[in-house]
Amino acid sequence: MIQFNHVSKRYAQGHDALKDVNFTLATGEMAFLTGHSGAGKSTLLKLIMLMERPSAGQIQVGEQQLNALGRRDIPYLRRSIGVVFQNHQLLFDRSVFDNILLPLQISGFAPDDAARRVRAALDKVGLLTKEKMSPLALSSGEQQRIGIARAIVHKPKILLADEPTGNLDPQLSAEIMQLFTQFNRVGTTVLIASHDIALIRSMGRRVLTLQSGRLLSDG
Amino acid sequence: MDKKRGAVRVQPTPKPVAEPKGPRGAEHHHIDRKGHSDNWRRHHVDVCKSALRKLLTTPVASAMTIAVLAIALTLPGFLFSALDNMRTIATGWEGETRISLYLQPSLSDADADRFGRQLMLRDDIAAIDMISREQGLREFARISGFSDVLDTLSDNPLPAVVVLMPTATSTKDLGLLRASFEALPEVDEAVLDMEWLQRLQAIMGLASRAVYVLGVLLGLTVLLVIGNTIRVAIESRRDEIVVSKLVGATDAWVRRPFLYTGFWYGLIAALVAWVSIQAAWLMLEQPVEQLAQLYRSHYQLQGLGLMGSLWLFICSVLLGWAGAGLAVHRHLRDIEPQ
Ligand SMILES: Nc1ncnc2c1ncn2[C@@H]1O[C@H](COP(=O)(O)OP(=O)(O)OP(=O)(O)O)[C@@H](O)[C@H]1O
Ligand SMILES: [Mg+2]
């Protein structure tokens, strides 16, 4: 589903964020991406959704060679991926409901169908009662769960999460991980960046470890 | 993963249209299309409405912008319709252009009469009025009150005059005609009593140039004002644009609300300008009526008229849309998620 072939990423300032990264994530697989702060976890996820372009190497997502995708194709790639962002990326000028609705509006869902899906997603993250509130009025843990609901509302084939449990207490973190496992069970390919080693261990899944941009261990 | 649809597009997992219920194939495809175009149309209506709603949520700022736009539209709109009115007046008078032929004084009355009859056969002359030397003298005496003096004159000093109404209306044709008459041996002098009209037309030519230049400049103003307003709007909705792009919004999707905002600005500004122009003409109606009466004429002022109004609205909406398009083109690309 996701394949990296000798991928390197050098930022404009000359910093090498990723160096010769190779790995393959099979369809329906669930894996963790770990490493110290600044190791390149976010960079790797950004490459998958073409927020950044690799300096060298090839990335394949589904049947798409990302190098072959032009600017105009990027939106369609992103619609096939659900992303939980490290900094939520929620909009504070609208309700929780409208935040989660956004990807569906963009993909052109009919309003009643979209509303049903938004409520289903809210129900999954346990925030059904807060749909009319502003994200500003929510705790940062709740905001994170809104971000998760938005990432899964259109049932993407791939789910990427960047520190999805960063602001959550251990119990909530475990619940969120349960949620990801659930998605994975229905066939979603899941890649989660996290440095919560204990939590990752407890999951017993494949772990990709980055160190200063290099992929150390894969297993 | 997904079936490949186009050359490179990745298909989003759930179909954004109604699930197929009937048999697959042509019919299913048809439902698909219809569902899709329905969604598309609804999306446009939604965006259009919410763009208007957003304008109304900042009424003061929007009103200021619209006032500036309306002024920039009212001025050329009013001047264009003023030009139209003047053109109507000028052409109305042009039909009454006359050429007076002062015949050679040596010409006998009989010759003058024959010359007049010849002219009547020409088809570039609509009507002819002969004023014989005798008639001329009588007329002059009546008007001037110098009949006593004239009685003492042994000889009639006045030439015979032929006043004719040419069929030609353009200044150029009339000029040529006048010259050709003057070249006739019987004619001493041919006078076109329209020099003032030529002057008027020259002035109007100049005025219309000036109005066009002004129109272009103020059109540019509309474009820039809307462009700048949209630029500010883009800046203030930066987060929304970033997030939308992150969850798969196309450039067209991101652009759309701003284009509709430009459209609304153009439309509302045109409406305000239209009302002010018509109000200005209404205010001028009475004075113009009085002025026309002084000239023993009747003139009905024309406002913008249907064509003028149409032009105003089309130009304004297009300018609004184009101004927004320019701003969007310049600034949206710069906003990329980091
Ligand atoms: N836009 C950028 N321009 C320049 N350098 C960048 C940019 N983004 C990231 N970097 C650099 O690339 C390296 C990897 O960054 P990245 O965000 O991928 O790390 P990370 O593993 O996600 O760290 P964290 O756990 O703190 O989120 C860092 O040294 C960072 O400074
Ligand atoms: Mg990071």
Question: How are the secondary structure elements laid out?
Answer:
The complex is a heterodimer of chains A (219) and B (338).
Chain A: E1 2-10, E2 16-25, E3 30-35, H1 41-48, E4 56-61, E5 64-65, H2 74-79, E6 81-84, H3 96-107, H4 111-124, H5 140-152, E7 158-162, H6 170-185, E8 189-193, H7 197-203, E9 206-211, E10 214-218
Chain B: H1 26-57, H2 59-94, E1 99-103, H3 109-121, E2 125-131, H4 133-144, H5 147-152, E3 161-166, H6 171-183, E4 187-192, H7 195-236, H8 238-246, H9 251-294, H10 305-331
Antiparallel strand pairs in B: 1-3, 1-4, 2-3
Helix pairs in contact in B: 1-9, 2-7, 2-9, 2-10, 7-9, 7-10, 9-10
The complex binds adenosine-5'-triphosphate and magnesium ion (MG).
Biased composition (Basic and acidic residues) (chain B): 21-38
Transmembrane segments (chain B): 60-83, 210-230, 263-284, 304-328
Subcellular location (chain B): Cell inner membrane
Question: How far from one another are the termini of chain B?
Answer: 28 Å
Number of helices of chain B: 10
Strand order of the largest sheet of chain B: 2-3-1-4
Helix content of chain B: 55-70%
Shape of chain A: globular
- Using only CA atoms, what is the Rg of chain B? 35 Å
Oligomer: heterodimer
Description:
- The complex is a heterodimer of chains A (219) and B (338).
- Chain A is 35% helix and 26% strand.
- Chain A contains seven helices and ten strands.
- The longest helix of chain B has 44 residues, at 251-294.
- Mean pLDDT of chain B is 82; it is low at 1-32.
- In chain B, strands 2-3-1-4 form a four-stranded antiparallel sheet.
- The structure holds adenosine-5'-triphosphate and magnesium ion (MG).
- Residues 11, 13, 15, 17, 35, 37-43, 86, 195 of chain A line the site of adenosine-5'-triphosphate.
- The site of adenosine-5'-triphosphate has 14 residues of chain A, from helix 1.
